[in-house]
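Interim report to the steering committee. The following record documents the input for histidine kinase (253 residues).
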Amino acid sequence: LADSRIEENKVKELNQLRISYNKMLERLADAFEIQRQFTANAAHELRTPLSVMQVQLDLYHSTPHPGNDADTLQTLKMVTEQNGRLSKMVKTLLDMSELQTVSRDETIAVDALVDEVLVDLEPLAQEKEIKLIGNCKDTTMVGSDILIYRMVYNLVENAIKYNHFGGQVTVTAYRSGKNICLSVEDTGSGIPAELKERIFEPFFRVDKSRSRQLGGVGLGLALVREIVRVHDGRITVQSSPSGGTIFEVVFTQ
Ligand code: ADP
């Protein structure tokens, strides 16, 4: 009798634990939802004044102003650049907050998508005489076409941005059993081992001034990580201090 009472108490305790655990998960989900809503609302609100400013600046730049001195022109150039950076940041924040609502049931030809990214980024690569190489097998996966494009685009854009003049970027994609493996390899500056996890944090940059000079806002990899997460994938990075970085993404379907 004593044994069965102990058993009963254990079951009660376990049930109590399960209820508390579920409540905690619900609260966490609510907190995430509130944060997501806040980010989305803030980004929406910021977008309008920023685009009004951009239109005004474009209008100003499209007409000649012969009376302006060098200082004024320099100030206007800076304001335009910073406005562009802010707009980029706000757009990425908005994209991040809307990830969950995007449909992820499209059949994607990964090889064709990679080719598209490489064509779109060819002009950027040419600026530094970087060779872009696509090495993709005929591979399909199910997901969001627009998000997977964005993921590959951000990885290849970084591989170009943080590469040396005359370097190389290789994108590989293939299926191995249930795994779809995609990797982006560059011959660039590499990432210090102790910072390999931190680069996925929003606004984290190994070298802030270099990133800023290259037009970065520190949200590219945070978005990549979220895109991988909503597709139930994994992302890893290997880099050697002597240079060269490989980002590898695996989706299991
Ligand atoms: P950013 O807008 O600064 O490029 P990201 O979130 O895309 O922001 O990347 C975060 C940081 O990770 C970058 O500032 C850079 O320091 C580092 N990084 C990303 N990709 C690479 C790469 N391929 N090689 C070297 N460093 C990289």
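The helical segments are 2-62, 70-98, 110-127, 145-161, 208-213, 220-230. The committee is asked to note this result when reviewing the revised timeline.
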